[in-house]
Amino acid sequence: MARLTRAQQREVTRQRLVDAAAQVFGRTGFEAAPIDLIAEEAGFSRGAFYSNFESKDDLFVALLGHHLDAEVETLGRALDRIQSPQDLAPAIERRYRVLGTDPGWCLLTTEFQLYGMRGGAKSAEFEQVYGSYRQRIGELIARQFDRLGIQSPLSPYEFGISAIALAHGLALQRAVDPTLADTLPGRALAAFVRGALSEQPSAD
């Protein structure tokens, strides 16, 4: 087996730190997570951490970027499979069913967003990464609206932003009230989609 180049080794190290951070942040939240624990979970020293990331904030922004890239890709594949406007709500419900059982990412994103709004480091970088995510979701929705001939009182960007806000809000509500049905986020998002698409032209 060929030896990894220095650049490849660095990328492997960074990815292991990102993966470890996802686990640690998921258990403790962002602000309570110590750098030493993240490095230990990845199998590295504190020095290795700082050779790859300037701070915990820097690492979180990298982790967020990885997660949101995967989210856009996964959602895009799910929506590409639908064949009619009527298929959109069930597809969204299936895709976001996980929010009922694992609200961790929504909680983390909300925590970091509040941290940034209150003057935390990397707030500008966070907004850049998250702004790109919102824009890409809007573009993805626009492509599906065009492909399926969907009409809505909301623009594709507004549709995407509203779905994100609803998803995050429902995840927060599930976190504070576990008695809520774990199917609620998916069902509520599907209901939102049906309402937002209620002005479809007649098929006649």
Structural class category: mainly alpha
**CA gyration radius, whole angstroms:** 19 Å
Question: Could you please say which CATH topology of the largest domain applies here?
Answer: Tetracycline Repressor, domain 2
| N→C terminal distance | 63 Å
CATH architecture of the largest domain: Orthogonal Bundle
Largest β-sheet summary: none
> Roughly what is the average pLDDT, rounded to an integer?
88
* Helix content percent band: over 70%
- What is the CATH homology-level superfamily of the largest domain? Tetracycline Repressor, domain 2
Strand-and-helix sequence, N→C? HHHHHHHHH
Determine and state the CATH class of the largest domain.
Mainly Alpha
Query: What count of structural domains?
Result: 2
What's the number of helices? 9
Total strand segments: 0
Approximate shape: globular
